[in-house]
Specification:
The complex is a heterodimer of chains A (840) and B (382). By secondary structure, chain A is α+β, with helices and mostly antiparallel strands. Chain A contains 26 helices and 31 strands. The two termini of chain A are 54 Å apart. In chain A, 37% of the residues are buried. Chain B contains 17 helices and eleven strands. With 382 residues, chain B is an alpha+beta fold. The chains are: A alpha+beta (840), B alpha+beta (382). The interface between A and B is large, with 102 and 109 residues.
């Protein structure tokens, strides 16, 4: 492995002078031809080998290196006539306007300039309007610009030569007064007399399958420039008429302008033969796909894998299931030492095909060799201390796992490898929440750290167990979900289990010490749950239904375990375990709770079915009555509205009042029907169990399935659009009735009428649109925030500062607390008081 | 007077207050125990130097930002005033737009006013804008006289306590080159110089919108009862005029535009407005972002004494590093300008070092190693 010890200290920006361009060039480009008959680059052409090599086998004459090692060197083109640099047109214009056309001094006396405290912009605006030079008293004409690159003074065009000669006479002192550093940007350098030709390596040509060469856009553009430039030279030397020379000069200006920027509004873009615009320098740098954001701020990496994810509740939270074929491709470098010599030898013996093998061998002198059947023997001979190999991924290796969009730091976490058969990455459903993943086809990325430093950082800073609490609000992002919650809920609520079965269950989740298990033939579910808790755990919390949950000395005494204690986002028991037993032991305990819940459901069985939504005749009657009652109420409101008897609500007009009142009625109806359904559904209804435990769904979902979907809302009110005065042509004009404004009185099980279905699809489409339209907005907000705040850090003196050391806050959040180390952003005094009282 | 708390004055005041409140039934020994544990946990929860707190804050807003979309909330029924809530409002705040799209001033009232509905209504009427068209029945041309005649609605005028002479003086102030006369419920407005008909028509339109009473451009004014007192919401950002109204409690009344507040009450108040507004949006969306992040962001936006937006012209433009600015937006512009003044990028912040594949000055990249080298090793190097 090569280490680079040098560090870049700083980068300075400036303009290139003509001399500099010639000095740094290794050759002069004089011909637009690229290759000779044999296909070898022409000397003095744009692909001159002195500017670097891009063909395998060729050697660069400048540094004697081959492809990949040769960085490439600049060449230059000597321009027949000077040309304006398009990116500096504004600056050139400002200088022309601010300096005397005759004596080339700044249009303001020393004293005045010293006295006025203007910024650059104000100074420019002021100088522009000065009509007489204070130094030589010559009248000044305002210089106008003719887009894109011509300057006009007193109706006469200023040629770049004239501009350049004026600029050359400006003194360094005057430039400094104007806010330009003469060391880095003499204004005459903004008029190009020589054009640097970038190295061949920055504009490599591609060889197509047919053997034809396809040149880079920049090469195309440069050859245009060289061609016109040569023609201009010839014409000048031959003494051609001024008009022809001028035309060619303008053409050269055009080519050089589009070479720098091909998307200027006043210049027609240069195009390929096919008609698609060329991608020149500015386009290469700019925007998301440009050099900055695509190649510099974000980089491609090796030693990574990507495939779809599938759930596996039997692996731990901090593990990731890696397919064997991935494990044989991704490698970890390991150096041969005295102590692992024989261990590592086995990997080489296995080769790259047999699983715990190795793919590459690096000999003492740093040569890389692929391990194959043929090379194996030779490599084994060379195998000695100090070499290293790249061995296959093994169980327990540290990897970094990620899902895009990486919106928060929990989107990239460190897992331990579990090699599994199959082709998908496996992850525990409990870590779906931080990644925001599901299994409908999501893909995730895996990276293998290659150095000890990287591995150490990954393990210390990025492990799953260190990211249970979110720095966003101090609540846990990792907790148990779905089946695990249902299982624990059922277990702790009323389950009774024989001792044999309890032992069996506990053993299957990895517990072999049953000293915690209560004695007795038949055990309560709570006792089984207690068996996995540490003996010294004491905890007081509340369940989802606001009952106390009390754990004393590792025994669950009272209450049921549900989402409020072990769920995601504010699972109090999860947080407690994490706080008291630390990251490692904490996640182990959470894992056990998760496995226990899943195991219980596996053994006891749990299904939700269509019959969950069955209602008794009694309830159906009740619902119908309520519906009719509300319908009558709504009709009354409409009637009152029509007769003008309706009393207006404060701050509302007539229409708003009617809508609000009707909506109120309809919402009441929905709530009432939900109540009716809830009251008449058995406690053992699986859907209800899921809702009550907080595993999935809520009571409203059940009511919508079994009884009534209810009002479809769009924005703030009912559906209120379509034809003139009505939503659909089946309804009367100006009808305000519930059914014409998106009220659905059927449940999903009975099925919706065509009209209802239509309304339902309206709201569905609306929310879809909403998502699609606002995602880029929030993405941009995030990008701006991240960009503005990325250098802010806590200094060693605990102040919050930006990169230049300016203090933003003296203490983060006025108290200097890390949100991810607090309980919901606070120090929980109440809990501490309670603990002190209970003397624990 | 010494108490147990003196020993613990390194803890934040609020925390001490909370302990005082919650430890009421405890004896002094226990109280000390509580305080000790609080301090222990407080020390444990302190943020570590090098923490990339800026990125964490950005993530804390960015991640729920996408949630704001995915979970669409519909509030049915109660909508007393249209208010721009949700992501759009958050963007508006962070952009530091001068004018909020839905301005709102929350007016608190002084003692003696705030519980009396009739007095509250009088103040509301004082604030609400009355234009000439609100109290006029008809605007008509009298072409023979070349003038405009406005028929006033006497009932409306009585309700709003406006007299004809009041209207006349305001009109005379507003239209200096007009001849304004009142004639028992009819206003006669005649241009002093005779002009074309179209100018007369324009005059009519102008007349309609003349402010007779109240604060200009105030749309809705709604008194609402809030914990035993009345509060007036009104859709304006003209806080200055509101402050001048009799009975308004200046110490509590605020607007939702940080710029207006900054101008009137100072930058610290504007910072608080930013915090309050952001908290409001986040709460409304059913999200949870710690207040520390919001405070930090508000501090970033206001710590220069003026409100700076999180945009390329705002905070990002003030970065020291050319490359950091260039990597955000408009890269060419930044590089051209940098070349003119021979700008040096010292590579002190994050993104430039990422570009150059160097360690970034955050977290584990922050500390440097100072080591004494053995003499012979130094020699060997030479």
């Amino acid at each position: 492995m090569k280490y680079i010890y040098k560090k870049v200290g700083s980068i300075t920006f400036g303009l290139l002078s003509s001399e500099m361009i010639r000095k740094m060039a290794v050759c002069k480009v004089v011909t637009p031809e690229l290759y000779d008959k044999e296909g070898y680059p022409v000397d003095g052409g744009l692909m001159d080998v002195r500017m670097g090599v891009i063909d395998p086998g060729l050697v660069c004459p400048t540094d004697g290196k081959k492809l990949r090692d040769c960085p490439g060197y600049f060449g230059y083109i000597e321009l027949a006539r000077p040309v304006v640099h398009i990116k500096y047109v504004d600056v050139i214009l400002a200088i022309l306007r601010s300096f005397c056309s005759e004596c080339n001094k700044i249009l303001m006396t020393e004293e005045k300039l010293g006295a006025s405290k203007l910024n650059k912009k104000e100074l420019m605006a002021k100088l522009r309007n000065i009509k007489k030079c204070p130094h030589c008293q010559v009248k000044q004409y305002t210089v106008k610009i003719e887009k894109p690159t011509s300057f006009v003074e007193n109706d006469r065009r200023l040629s770049p030569i004239q501009v350049k000669s004026r600029f050359e006479k400006i003194s360094d002192d005057d430039l400094r007064k104007f806010g330009i550093d003469p060391q880095s940007a003499r204004p005459e350098w903004m008029i190009l007399t020589d054009l640097p030709v970038p190295p061949v390596t920055t504009r490599p040509s591609i060889t197509l399958e047919t053997g034809e060469r396809s040149e880079d856009d920049l090469t195309h553009k440069l050859s245009d420039i060289v061609r016109i430039n040569q023609r201009l030279f010839e014409n000048i030397n031959a003494g051609a008429p001024e008009i022809i020379v001028e035309d060619l000069w303008d053409l050269l200006q055009y080519h050089i302008t589009t070479y720098f920027d091909n998307s200027i509004s006043s210049v027609p873009p240069a195009r390929h033969r096919g008609g698609q615009p060329l991608k020149t320098l500015t386009e290469r740098i700019k925007s998301k796909e440009g050099r900055f954001r695509h190649n510099l701020a974000g980089k491609r990496v090796n030693f990574s894998a990507r495939t779809f994810i599938t759930p596996d509740p039997r692996i731990k939270f901090n593990e990731v299931g890696v397919p064997l074929i991935v494990a044989k491709e991704l490698t970890v470098p390991e150096r041969v030492t005295e102590w692992n010599l024989n261990y590592l030898k086995k990997f080489v013996e296995n080769g790259s095909e047999i699983y715990p093998g190795a793919n590459y061998f690096f000999s003492l002198d740093g040569k890389k060799k692929k391990i194959t059947e043929d090379t194996k023997e030779q490599i084994l001979e060379e195998f000695q201390i100090g070499c290293y190999i790249e061995r296959h991924l093994l169980d327990g290796d540290t990897v970094v796992f990620n899902r895009q969009p990486s919106l928060h730091r929990m989107s990239i976490m460190c897992h331990k490898v579990r090699i599994l058969p199959g082709k998908s990455f496996r992850l525990n459903p409990s870590v779906c929440n931080p990644y925001n993943a599901d299994f409908d086809g999501d893909e995730m990325n895996l990276h293998v750290p290659q150095t000890e430093e990287a591995r150490a950082e990954a393990e210390i800073l990025m492990e799953v167990e260190n990211h249970i609490i979110s720095p966003k609000n101090g609540l846990n992002v990792i907790g148990t979900t779905t089946d695990a919650i249902t299982g624990n809920f059922l277990l702790t609520k009323y389950m009774k289990i024989s001792r044999e079965e309890a032992v069996d269950i506990l053993y299957s989740i990895g517990i072999s010490d049953f000293s915690n298990l209560k004695s007795g033939k038949i055990l309560e579910g709570k006792d089984v749950f207690s068996a996995i808790l540490p003996k010294d755990l004491s905890f007081i919390g509340t369940s989802k239904e606001k009952h106390d949950v009390i754990i004393k000395n590792g025994k669950l005494i009272e209450g049921v375990i549900d989402k409020a204690t072990i769920g995601e986002d504010n699972g109090t028991l999860i947080r407690r375990l994490h706080a008291v037993y630390g990251a490692e032991e904490g996640i182990e305990l959470i894992n056990k709770i998760f496995r226990l819940g899943v195991e219980i459901l596996l053994r006891k069985g749990f299904t939700s079915s269509i019959s969950d939504t069955d209602l008794s005749k009694d309830v159906i009657m009740k619902n119908k009555e309520k519906l009719i009652y509300v319908e009558n109420k709504v009709n009354e409101i409409i009637e009152e509205h029509k007769t003008g008897k309706l009393e207006l609500l404060p701050g509302m007009d007539e229409y708003g009042t009617v809508e609000t009142l009707i909506l109120r009625q309809l919402n009441q109806l929905r709530d009432k029907i939900g109540e009716n359904v809830y009251e008449n559904v058995s406690e053992n209804n699986p859907t209800i169990i899921m809702a009550r435990s907080g595993a999935k769904g809520n009571f409203l979902n059940l009511a919508q399935m079994s009884a009534m979907v209810g009002q479809q809302a769009m924005g703030e009110g009912r559906i209120n659009m379509g034809y003139k005065g009505r939503t659909l042509s089946t309804f009367k004009r100006n009808s305000l009735s519930p059914e014409s404004r998106g009220f659905i009185k059927n449940g999903y099980k009975q099925g919706l009428t065509p009209v209802e279905f239509f309304f339902h699809s309206i709201t569905g489409r609306d929310s879809l649109m909403d998502t699609a339209l606002r995602t880029p907005k929030s993405g941009y907000l995030y990008r701006r925030l991240a960009n503005a705040l990325q250098d802010m850090r806590i200094e060693y003196d605990n102040t919050l500062r930006d990169a230049s050391g300016k203090i933003i806050q003296f203490k983060f959040g006025d108290d200097g607390l890390d949100v991810s180390k607090t309980e919901g952003g606070k120090i929980n005094v109440q809990r501490i008081v309670r603990e002190v009282k209970a003397n624990v | 007077m010494s108490s147990v708390y003196d020993e613990f004055n390194d803890l934040p005041e609020l925390l001490i207050e909370e302990v005082k409140e919650l430890s009421k039934g405890l004896d002094s020994n226990e109280r000390k125990k509580v305080l000790k544990r609080v301090r222990e946990e407080f020390e444990k929860a302190k943020i570590s130097p090098g923490e990339a707190i800026g990125v964490i804050t950005a993530e804390s807003f960015g991640e729920p930002g996408t949630q704001m979309i995915l979970r669409v909330f519909h509030f049915a029924g109660v909508a007393e005033m249209s208010l721009n809530l949700g992501l759009a409002r958050l963007i508006e705040l962070f952009d530091a737009r001068k004018k909020p799209s839905t301005p709102l001033t929350t007016i608190y009232l002084k003692h003696g006013y705030k519980t009396d509905l009739s007095k509250v209504k009088i103040i509301a009427a004082l604030i609400k804008e009355t234009r000439l068209k609100d109290i006029a029945d008809e605007f008509s041309f009298n072409l023979t006289q070349f003038r405009i005649e406005v028929l006033l609605n006497k009932k409306e005028m009585r309700d709003l306590k406006i007299t004809e002479s009041q209207i006349l003086t305001t009109l005379k102030d507003n239209f200096k080159d007009m001849d304004v006369k009142g004639d028992n419920g009819i206003l006669k407005i005649k241009p002093k110089e005779k002009d074309s008909l179209s100018t007369l028509y324009k005059l009519k339109e102008k007349l309609k919108y003349v402010n007779i009473k109240g604060i200009k451009n105030v749309g809705q004014v709604t008194p609402v009862k809030r914990d035993n007192e009345y509060v007036i919401y009104c859709t304006t950002d003209d806080l200055k005029s509101v402050f001048e109204v009799e009975g308004v409690d200046i110490t509590k009344t605020t607007a939702n535009s940080p710029f207006v507040v900054a101008e009137l009450l100072g930058i610290e108040a504007a910072r608080q407005v930013l915090i309050n507004e952001a908290v409001e949006v986040i709460k409304n969306q059913g999200l949870d972002i710690d207040i520390r992040h919001i405070m930090f962001l508000a501090d970033v936006m206001t710590n220069k004494g003026i409100i700076k937006g999180i945009t390329r012209t705002g905070i990002t433009s003030e970065k020291e590093s050319v490359l950091a600015r260039a990597s955000f937006e408009t890269p060419i512009k930044h590089m051209v300008n940098a070349s003119l003044v021979c700008e040096e990028d010292k590579l002190k912040s994050v993104i430039e070092n990422v570009m150059l594949n160097q360690p970034i000055p955050l977290g584990t990249g922050l500390p440097g190693l100072v080591a004494k080298m053995k003499e012979d090793s130094v020699k060997r190097k030479k």
